[in-house]
Design brief:
mainly alpha; 5 helices
Length: 192
């Protein structure tokens, strides 16, 4: 149980950020599927393009003002441009998935079209989460070549391995904490 708690504490920020990202992504996915299926008669590529543009606007607002609000970007124009460029790459992922169904001769089926949307959404979500954190919304103190504060793992203070074992043993036995003071062998029995 302690290992689960320790892992959670270590990755807590990433878990919370990922959960928010997935929530916004779910909303964007619903927009994509509803619009793409509603406009399917216009052609599957045009339908998914329009759906992706609408979903991009929704997810930009959700991610900017909720998921990544604690991170600072380089400026609204730059952030917006990068966000839409990266979503353009996400759209290419959709095109690739839909194209594979066409190559397999399954492109006329609405079921396979939706299957391609599901796969494209999964691959696109992984790409977007990674790329937004890397290029759009970086941690507030991140500079070129500096790891983002939100991505840093807390480092335990340096401790001698033998001392750490003694601390663990003392904790298990309910003994008083082990002293960090060096023990002097000379004059150990002297009285003040």
């Amino acid at each position: 149980m302690d290992s689960v708690r320790g892992a959670y504490q270590r990755f807590r920020h990433l878990i919370h950020e990922g959960a928010k990202f997935l929530t916004i992504g779910l909303i964007g996915t619903i927009v994509t599927f509803v619009v793409a299926n509603a406009l399917h008669s216009l052609g599957k590529y045009l339908a998914v393009t329009i759906a992706t543009v609408l979903a991009t606007v929704v997810t930009y607002l959700g991610n900017r003002y909720w998921t990544f609000r604690h991170r600072q970007g380089q400026g609204t124009a730059r952030d917006s441009t990068m966000f839409f460029v990266l979503n353009g790459i996400g759209l290419l992922i959709y095109y690739g998935c839909i194209g594979l169904t066409d190559l397999a001769g399954l492109g006329s089926s609405r079921i396979w079209y939706n299957a391609a949307l599901v796969v494209g959404t999964g691959l696109g979500t992984l790409f977007r989460f990674w790329s937004y954190r890397k290029w759009v919304w970086t941690a507030k103190d991140a500079g070129p070549g500096t790891p983002a504060e939100a991505d840093r793992q807390p480092q335990p203070p340096h401790q001698d391995p033998l001392e750490a074992k003694a601390q663990d043993l003392a904790a298990v036995l309910g003994a008083a904490p082990v002293s960090h003071e060096p023990v002097s062998t000379s004059g150990a029995h002297r009285r003040p």
